[in-house]
Design brief:
This protein has 220 residues and is of the alpha+beta class. The protein has 9 helices and 4 strands; from the N terminus they run βαβαββααααααα. One of its GO terms (cellular component) is cytoplasm.
Length: 220
């Protein structure tokens, strides 16, 4: 039977990656519909997908007749409509902290280095590959320095970003770690982040969400 939840994403999109983690942490079945961000100039620009998501980005999540975009909005929607197990703490201070950590990734690190920004650096400013790499490394390292400081100094950091249960902050952090490794940012410079990354890597919810595990990932 087809799932009511349909996720439109791309195997290497970190925004789609974080939603896959959230869906898996909640044990929710979903249909994965790949949208190739490069082939043919980018399938996200096709009229049918643009009608679904006018910003022409992934992810998009369809829940029955409702379509949602923006990964944080999707994850919080899932938490409100399928509350168990929760992605956010029960207390206001804890929820604020988790959102703070998540938004460092989703608002301050990821948007500066996503595909369309890097493509613009090349097409408009003729940035060579080395400058594109340096750009990505700089902004990831800047954000990770702040995250490491905040995680290391706070007693509410446990095995995961907040306590000993993985949640929304971890779902945002781990895909950004994937990007960091892809661009050559060494995780050993951030020991708390590295430890959380290793802990999450032991969980099936994160393994199944990994880019290489997706149906549209390159086979070679």
């Amino acid at each position: 039977m087809a799932s009511d939840l349909v996720l439109y994403g791309y195997w290497r999109s970190t925004a789609a990656y974080r939603v896959r983690i959230a869906l898996n942490l909640k044990g929710l079945a979903f249909e994965n519909r790949p949208v190739h961000l490069v082939r043919g100039g980018g399938e996200q620009h096709a009229p049918a997908y643009a009608a679904l998501n006018p910003l022409e980005l992934v992810p998009s999540l369809r829940d029955g007749e409702r379509t949602l975009t923006q990964s944080l909005a999707i994850m919080e929607y899932l938490d409100e409509t399928r509350p168990e197990p929760p992605l956010l703490p029960s207390d206001a201070a804890g929820r604020a902290r988790v959102r703070e950590l998540a938004q460092i990734v989703t608002c301050d690190i990821h948007p500066i280095g996503n595909l369309r920004v890097l493509q613009r650096l090349v097409t408009q400013f003729e940035a060579p590959e080395g400058e594109k790499v340096a750009w990505s490394r700089h902004w990831i390292a800047t954000g990770f320095h702040a995250l490491e400081t905040m995680l290391a100094r706070d007693s509410t950091t446990g095995r995961y970003c907040h306590g000993d249960t993985p949640g929304l902050a971890d779902a945002c952090l781990i895909p950004q770690c994937y990007n960091a490794l892809r661009w050559g940012v060494p995780l050993q410079d951030y020991p708390t982040i590295q430890r959380i990354h290793a802990a999450c890597g032991e969980l099936d919810a994160f393994k199944a969400a990994a880019p290489e595990a997706q149906q549209d990932a390159p086979k070679s």
